[in-house]
Amino acid sequence: PLVMVTVTNNSGGGQPVSMANLRAVRAVCDRYGIPFFLDACRFAENAYFIKIREEGYADRTPTEIAQEMFSLVDGATFSAKKDGLANIGGFLAMNNAEVALRCRNLLILTEGFPTYGGLAGYDLEAIATGLEEVLDEDYLRYRIRSTQYLADKAHAAGVPIVRPAGGHAVYIDAAAMLAHIPALQYPAQALGVELYRTGGVRGVEIGSVMFGAIGADGAEIPAAMELVRLAIPRRTYTQSHIDYVAEVVIDVARRADSIHGYRIVEQAPQLRHFTARFEPLGH
């Protein structure tokens, strides 16, 4: 067993984790002898939020803050497609040499030799460069502000969103926008479909399709939140692109009452949200 903390919290509105929180988790793990890992794919954005929000860190660089974050944990998982600024790849890091050896042996069987892990050389170079560039303070300031810009436009138009905005995405509260759709008719999925049909804006459901559970009686239990994540690609969109996304979101919100729910017609036994097929209701 281990404790995993995701920075930033992707399923909870992209919110950051404070250094004080990380230290408190470290203390609990030490008390019970449990390893502490970070899901660190957005570590740089989290470090920048600590810098601008947490007392005592305003004069620290994002690099220094990130180093302190990693010093508190026993290991980390990392998808380089996020704060690695790369197209593919990632890594698993840990302090325990014995566990690392077991992981390397498994890597050879499943991905490739430990020196490349199944990745091409240019992908490894992209990750190495990305890990440096992602901690540039000017980049992080622009990145966070771009997300905030979309959030501000949506909020000003009355679109219910998770506030304050996270670092990598704006999260629309589909349960609030589509209050007429029951949770088990998947309002977040319905909103995601409508955004794509209307303007080609591709978001992702973070609701009962992804996190719904099956109770002891076999009935489905809805998730606590019904969100649609609009993740913003790094170094890709201009302000005009973000303006277009906002226009589509606002247009859909204005006719929210006309949107109907969906039912699942095909699903996998695990991780159904990746491959499930749906059928619209009420059309």
UniProtKB/TrEMBL annotation:
The keyword Lyase applies. GO terms for molecular function: tryptophanase activity. The keyword Lyase applies. Its EC number is 4.1.99.1. Its cofactor is pyridoxal 5'-phosphate. Residues 1-247 form the Aromatic amino acid beta-eliminating lyase/threonine aldolase domain. It holds the Pfam family Beta_elim_lyase. InterPro entries: ArAA_b-elim_lyase/Thr_aldolase, PyrdxlP-dep_Trfase, PyrdxlP-dep_Trfase_major, PyrdxlP-dep_Trfase_small. Signal peptide: none annotated. SUPFAM superfamilies: PLP-dependent transferases (SSF53383). Keywords: Lyase, Pyridoxal phosphate. Coiled coil: none annotated. Belongs to the beta-eliminating lyase family. This is Tryptophanase. It comes from hydrothermal vent metagenome.
